[in-house]
Amino acid sequence: MLEKNFEVEEVLELIEQKKFNDLKKYLERINGADFPTIFEEINDEDAIIVFRLLDKEKGAEVFAELDSDLQERLINSFTDVELKSVVDELFMDDTVDVIEEMPSNVVKRILRAVSDNDRKIINEMLNYPEDSAGSIMTTEFVDLKEDMTVAQAFEKIKKIGLKKETVYNCYVLDKNRKLVGVIDLKDLLVSERDELVKNLIDTDIVAVKTIDDREEVAKAFDKYGYVAMPVVDKEERLVGIVTVDDAIDVIVEEASEDFEKMAAITPTEEGYFKTSVFQHAKNRILWLLVLMLSSIVTGTIITNYEEAFAALPVLVAFIPMLMDTGGNCGSQSSTLIIRGLATDEIKLKDFFKALWKEIRVALIVGVILAIANGIRICIQYKNFKLALVVGLTLIGVVTISKVLGCMLPMLAKKLKLDPAIMAAPLITTVVDTCSVLLFFNIAVAILHI
Amino acid sequence: MLEKNFEVEEVLELIEQKKFNDLKKYLERINGADFPTIFEEINDEDAIIVFRLLDKEKGAEVFAELDSDLQERLINSFTDVELKSVVDELFMDDTVDVIEEMPSNVVKRILRAVSDNDRKIINEMLNYPEDSAGSIMTTEFVDLKEDMTVAQAFEKIKKIGLKKETVYNCYVLDKNRKLVGVIDLKDLLVSERDELVKNLIDTDIVAVKTIDDREEVAKAFDKYGYVAMPVVDKEERLVGIVTVDDAIDVIVEEASEDFEKMAAITPTEEGYFKTSVFQHAKNRILWLLVLMLSSIVTGTIITNYEEAFAALPVLVAFIPMLMDTGGNCGSQSSTLIIRGLATDEIKLKDFFKALWKEIRVALIVGVILAIANGIRICIQYKNFKLALVVGLTLIGVVTISKVLGCMLPMLAKKLKLDPAIMAAPLITTVVDTCSVLLFFNIAVAILHI
């Protein structure tokens, strides 16, 4: 487990005893990301006391971590001067995040608190499409010119006075603000002070565009291992950077979104407990209705074979097993393909390669399942022909489901749809129909019923 | 899309024309992470040519990105001097990664190429449990003492001469090598050269232990937004750091693993195409057999109600719909709970809170589905009682499946099992049995058959 270096109880006690000096010292030891745990336990009055004990920089760091309800209540308790001091310290992208969640009267107060120049930038950032690189970037970065010396570069860094991860990579721009390359802060540090910046540039830099999807940005972080990714506009001018902490948030959120889509849930960005019961129901009902209607088709097909199962009622007993196995096989294949597409490991040009792989896997798996089941049927029902019917159906069902599980997500991607919708629930419903049709047709043919 | 600043064709052409000077210049523009794409297209002889044109640092960076087969072939083409130069430049954790994948004769050559001290560290790292923080950390970091000045700190950093992300955070240790705090490189940079290190320390630092699971480490990155996480041993001495690029790999791999587990696949670390057909079959067959056996139970239960569906064959038509809907509802709930547990948003103490939420969602969703289906049945079969039977069953099935989907993953976590195994496939099979039992019992009671 993580080293925990504070106790919420200790904080509560210090507040109660009004030992604010001790509390101030104690709070200094606590990481900004742990403050939400503390704020959960205290009332708003105490929250503002705690908040006022933090220094400016830490205050902004803590503020950015809080949930939007508490942020709003805190802002309402802030004086204009306090609000300005928090907003001044916040990263630009965090300010934009806060603004997006606030009611209009609070937004107005925030926009009054920022400088004219920042207000312009904020308005621009609010206009980038949702989930684009532009919407998650920060506009604070170090830009250098090729003909600067290392000493001049340091002056510039000190003057901009940026925080943490925005400073590790310094970007070198030409006179049109186009991105020429990057210099690692470490390279500046170990160089002589009169060395020219242009001799230290790494030109193997990769950039994203403001309108790129944030998922692409996250993938690029995974691939290139940067701590910050430059973002350029249409004219290839550097306009911002995405820092790695935000990229991690995106990676985690995108995975959660895929999990939800693959379980037939309309994804939301709110957490589980933050989402109301009605919203949960709304997020789930649409797909359930669609899938219910399509499984009714399967049911209707079954009634067409009434004569068959009237003659041999035991046939009905195999329906759940065939449906479940088909569903599970399809879900295995579709999950692997969807995930492979999401991580760029599988590409559309691999279509036939993947299909051929799935077909061979299906045959192996199908034959093993057919034999296992065949033995069971021979023992339980002493009916070899029945074992043959079920076995052949199983091999067919497994193959169909693996082929569909492989093809449908890739087809979705080809059609510019999200492959994640072609996951277990939809595949299962499609495979169900195939299973039932295959089963009764084989049964009628072999058992002559 | 990402800005692509090279063409594989161009590389191939320059190799063919033996324009090695131009090639060398061209390669400098290409990011290390893009080299695997190039090596895919060229043969081993050309690969070693390309490799020899890279400078030492870039060569190591590129080498670390290659897949282990190609690494092995390259090592076999290396002279001992070349091997030593690559290994010297590699991060310690990358060297360990390479060693873990190589046959013993190659391992011996690598170990001969490293210094005595490094060999000791490598052997220690090879001994950390798989998937522990110790196994993914690097032992290269900057350690400072409290009574150093900023100028001395810079000297130390230059002397250690580390690369990129290992240098952004400098760790301050006491005389027992216990971790006292962290200093951001930026804070050193903007301070006066005679300032004391102890005045710049951040003490709100969080560390992980060598034996912590790598998943915990990844979660800590998500929470604290560090670019490097310190790793301490049992005596709380700093022994290494995990850098953010490795943490991102872990986050992506752990998500992939959960996707696979939740689709009833035994997870592997190899990629989709790297895994052989037989290995794929092996990874999938176990759960399929288990789930097949349990769905046979459902089938057997159906045969107990032979009289019921002999009297009213249309009953059979509703089985697929009830099974699918139950499965989908259970999978929705279990996915949300499993993901919530994985991201620490849902905790075990929230058991009843989550359960109560799921029950209310189930009732809303169940009633809507029952009404939709009821209308359909009244129109199609003109049989109100049948609509009532199916409707009541649906409400029951949805409730049971959402309750199980919520409870089982949390129960698994409580029992220290991986919640991800309690996903759609297993829940579906359990819910199937409940659906069939509930359906026929309600049918018998209301329809008197």
Description:
The structure is a homodimer of 449-residue chains. Chain A has 449 residues and is mainly alpha-helical. Chain A folds into three domains: 8-127, MgtE N-terminal fold (Alpha Horseshoe), CATH 1.25.60.10; 142-260, CBS-domain (Roll); 277-447, Orthogonal Bundle (Tetracycline Repressor, domain 2), CATH 1.10.357. Chain A is 65% helix and 6% strand. The first copy, chain A, has 21 helices and six strands. Chain A has helices at 8-16, 20-28, 35-41, 44-53, 56-65, 68-77, 80-89, 92-101, 104-113, 116-126, 133-136, 150-160, 185-189, 214-224, 244-262, 277-304, 306-311, 319-342, 351-381, 384-414, 424-447; strands spanning 142-145, 169-173, 179-184, 208-209, 228-232, 238-243. Chain A has a three-stranded mixed β-sheet. Chain A has a three-stranded mixed β-sheet with strand order 4-5-6. In chain A, helix 8 (92-101) packs across helix 10, helix 16 (277-304) packs parallel to helix 21 (424-447) and helix 18 (319-342) packs parallel to helix 20.
Tell me the layout of helices and strands.
The structure is a homodimer of 449-residue chains.
Chain A lengths: L7 H9 L3 H9 L6 H7 L2 H10 L2 H10 L2 H10 L2 H10 L2 H10 L2 H10 L2 H11 L6 H4 L5 E4 L4 H11 L8 E5 L5 E6 H5 L18 E2 L4 H11 L3 E5 L5 E6 H19 L14 H28 L1 H6 L7 H24 L8 H31 L2 H31 L9 H24 L2
Parallel strand pairs in A: 1-2, 4-5
Antiparallel strand pairs in A: 2-3, 5-6
Helix pairs in contact in A: 5-7, 8-10, 14-15, 16-21, 18-20, 18-21, 19-20, 20-21
